[in-house]
Task: structure prediction
Amino acid sequence: MASAAGAVPARLRGMRNGVPGGMRAGAGVTALLCALLAAPWCGARAEDGSLPVAGGTDQARVDAALKAGEAAVVEQAEAAKKRAESERVFGQDWEQWSAGNSVSDLESLQRGARDFAAYCRGCHSLKYVRYSRLAQDLRIPEADLQQYLLPEGAKASDYMSSPMPSADAETWFGKAPPDLSLMARERGTDYLFQFLTTFYVDPARPTGANNLRLASAAMPDVLSVLEGVKGAVFRTVKVPGGSDEQVFDHFVQLAPGSLSREEYRSFVRDLVNFLDYVGEPAQVHRRALGVWVVLFLLLFTGLAYLLKREYWKDVH
Result:
């Protein structure tokens, strides 16, 4: 049966299993001291009900234990303060957020392909990429390709298309979702990373969400189940001319998602990494081959210089 929090008296809110929070804390400190001191008189009382008086050695150990407890309390307070400060400034540096991806990270690309199929393919296509090429480059076994990536009825030789009809997409979102084959090359990986991490609640938008990187984006916050729901806090600043302008200040986490903040950023990094690969599937091979090309040119330059010296040695 659900009950309102306000109906519980304030003096009872700190209780758990009928024991006030302060008593639990005191009992915990006593137990800690007993464990540290291993004193035989812990829990024992004299006939008059008072605790035995500790000797010099025991008193020193008590003092040491109390100092350790004070240090632990101070450390916890500092950690709580840092967490609160981190929440207060969360998102202030969003324009400096970087994907930091690497298309040579095969496991990241495999995770990104899996996540694209699960969360993006319903609306977005990759019209220049075949499933067979994807499986070959990312070393995905045929069985896994059939089970996790290929839609029902599709063949490995098919391009990665979206099942959403363009007419329906325009009706629902106002425009058809774009093909993402070259999006990483056009916008850059940092842009995509920032776009996928700066959604926030905006009741004025038809989808109920807005975005810092692309204001008034038609795309809903489809990844909020993973990231959670964020609110945006804006502050008013004066602009030249004397008028006021709303400027973004920081995010506020309104509801948690299934992933922690770092886990979600790792998820987005894998997804952006996959889109970076899709923009140029041969880029890893091209870069590896480029090293040998540069070495060849350096060697050829050296040989050409020695040949030139040989031809011109008798010319004065």
Observations:
- Residues 32-41+54-88 form one domain.
